[in-house]
Design brief:
By secondary structure, the chain is an alpha+beta fold. The chain has 5 helices and 15 strands.
Length: about 240
């Protein structure tokens, strides 16, 4: 299947903007995305201002079929159970005060599903943490222009010229990474090269490895890119291509 940004452009002022294709095999019990990359956010990655900014705009909702694709089949029922903090008799409660529930959200800017996974220890003073699972968009919203790239704690973000924060658009099987010589840094460099060469107008995921600019690739592969939080403006990326 080939993908062009115009192929999947569902725009609705009430529902936001969504690129998504669902792949199913009923006989095998498979239901997953075929284009969008899934994004796992561990509890330690939630302690950043950018994640908290993104989390603050999520809207809690009733679970639907898209949320179910983000959860192991055996754990799908937990999407429909209340948190033990809301109902001590919930099926997700452990020994009264512990909890292993799931919680459904959606991102109103992109329409994509988000599942929060709760782990609360039943022991006093034990762990009480949330991790999250979602999909990356395949593009920014219509009329948005890429303005800034942000990375920190293994998460990758785009901020538009209008100030909206988004998980960096990403294609399935083209995962991003930094700090070593491999496919992840190469995929990221190719994407950043694309947005720089188009003045931020082409932010669709799926840039080819061979299009990565050597200077940008050298940065994504460097240890410097993997330290703390890094931000590169569109002008920074364009300047790197002039070296």
């Amino acid at each position: 299947m080939t993908f062009e940004p115009a192929d999947l452009n569902l725009t609705d002022p009430e529902k936001g903007y969504l690129h998504f294709v669902l792949y199913t095999e009923a006989r095998l019990g498979i239901a997953s995305t075929s284009l969008n990359a899934d994004v796992s956010i561990d509890a330690h990655q939630t302690q950043t201002p950018h994640f908290q900014e993104w989390l603050s705009r999520l809207v809690r909702c009733e679970p639907n079929a898209m949320h179910c694709t983000l959860v192991e089949q055996a754990k799908i029922p937990a999407l429909f159970h209340p948190c033990a903090t809301e109902d001590k008799n919930s099926p997700s409660a452990i020994a009264g005060s512990g909890c292993v529930c799931r919680r459904a959200f959606y991102d109103p800017e992109f329409g994509l599903p988000v599942v929060g996974e709760h782990f609360k220890s039943c022991h006093e003073g034990g762990s009480d943490r949330w991790s999250y699972q979602t999909y990356a968009p395949l593009d920014l919203r219509p009329d948005d222009t890429f303005g800034r790239f942000i990375t920190g704690r293994g998460l990758f973000w785009a901020r538009t010229e209008k100030g909206l924060l988004s998980i960096l658009p990403q294609r399935n099987a083209l995962g991003y990474n930094i700090g070593y010589n491999g496919g992840g840094p190469h995929a990221l460099a190719a994407y950043l090269t694309q947005v720089a060469q188009t003045d931020g107008l082409n932010a669709a995921a799926g840039a080819s490895y061979e299009d990565a600019h050597p200077a940008i690739l050298a940065w994504t592969q460097s240890s410097a890119a993997d330290r703390g939080t890094n931000e590169l403006t569109l002008d920074d990326l364009k300047t790197m291509q002039q070296d």
